[in-house]
Write a sequence for this structure.
């Protein structure tokens, strides 16, 4: 296993000549009066699992850490959280929750530290909207709720009335409720929103572009928020295959197909290696329609 980890690490730090994207995303006149679930947000899969930043995770899904992603225009973040990391649990506080994907051995951070990144950005950018989608094994949602309620980021949380329509982006700005949080874990909170109640999601287990069939695996199209997965699994060449599948033709074709099939704009267009390809261009075009 360690031989594979070392190989993967060397592979991912290898230099590349592929050009980064030049466009970005921000709230503009095309979307400010649209409802939250009528907007497409550029999003990242395993957002915390990065190559360049303080931690430098061994097997990354993204090139840059969360602060850089926010700066570049990413507004939707898929994050895995766990209440047991299997490493130094004897030293951890009982209510602590960690962020990592599958194996803490590959690197982890406390959830509270991750929230600091989002809080700093929201403080400095009073018009921007951020969404977090937690994939979790934390059976006790109160652990997560407690961390948020004790963190200064709590003042930015969006509280949703179950039966009410989603507000416009402008209203969310006015009310300063600019952080939306979804979770796979069971939760009945008015801000820690149960994903099954509000969202539907297409298949993420894709290994080639031919697998992009937009098959819905979570929820159904009666839900109001569409999480669209557009990334490929590949053990050795994750960066290369995702740089290719993020190109305009592939990404726009998949987004158009999913929108036609589901009758819903992709609200979170979610990719790996977001800085390669045409993510922001596709998102901006979808929002300009």
């Amino acid at each position: 296993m360690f031989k594979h980890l070392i190989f993967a690490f060397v592979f991912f730090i290898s230099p590349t000549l592929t050009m980064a994207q030049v466009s970005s995303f921000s709230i503009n006149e095309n979307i400010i009066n649209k409802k939250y679930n009528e907007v497409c947000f550029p999003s990242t899969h395993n957002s915390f699992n990065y190559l360049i930043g303080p931690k430098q995770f061994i097997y990354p899904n993204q090139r840059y850490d969360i602060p850089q992603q926010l700066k570049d225009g990413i507004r939707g973040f898929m994050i895995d959280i766990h209440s047991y990391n299997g490493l130094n649990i004897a030293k951890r506080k009982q209510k602590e929750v960690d962020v990592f994907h599958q194996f803490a051995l590959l690197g982890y951070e406390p959830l509270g530290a991750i929230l600091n990144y989002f809080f700093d950005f929201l403080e400095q950018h009073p018009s921007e909207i951020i969404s977090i989608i937690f994939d979790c094994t934390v059976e006790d949602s109160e652990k997560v709720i407690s961390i948020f309620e004790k963190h200064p980021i709590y003042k930015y949380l969006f509280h949703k009335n179950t039966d009410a329509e989603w507000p416009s982006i402008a209203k969310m700005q006015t009310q300063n409720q600019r952080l939306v949080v979804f979770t796979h874990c069971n939760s009945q909170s008015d801000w820690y929103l149960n994903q099954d109640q509000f969202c539907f999601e297409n298949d993420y287990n894709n290994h080639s572009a031919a697998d992009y069939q937009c098959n819905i695996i979570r929820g159904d199209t009666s839900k109001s928020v569409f999480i669209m997965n557009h990334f490929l699994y590949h053990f050795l060449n994750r960066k290369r295959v995702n740089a290719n599948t993020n190109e305009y033709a592939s990404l726009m074709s998949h987004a158009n197909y999913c929108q036609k099939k589901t009758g819903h704009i992709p609200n979170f267009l979610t990719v790996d290696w977001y800085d390669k390809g045409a993510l922001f261009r596709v998102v901006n075009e979808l929002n300009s329609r």
About this structure: The chain has nine helices and 13 strands.
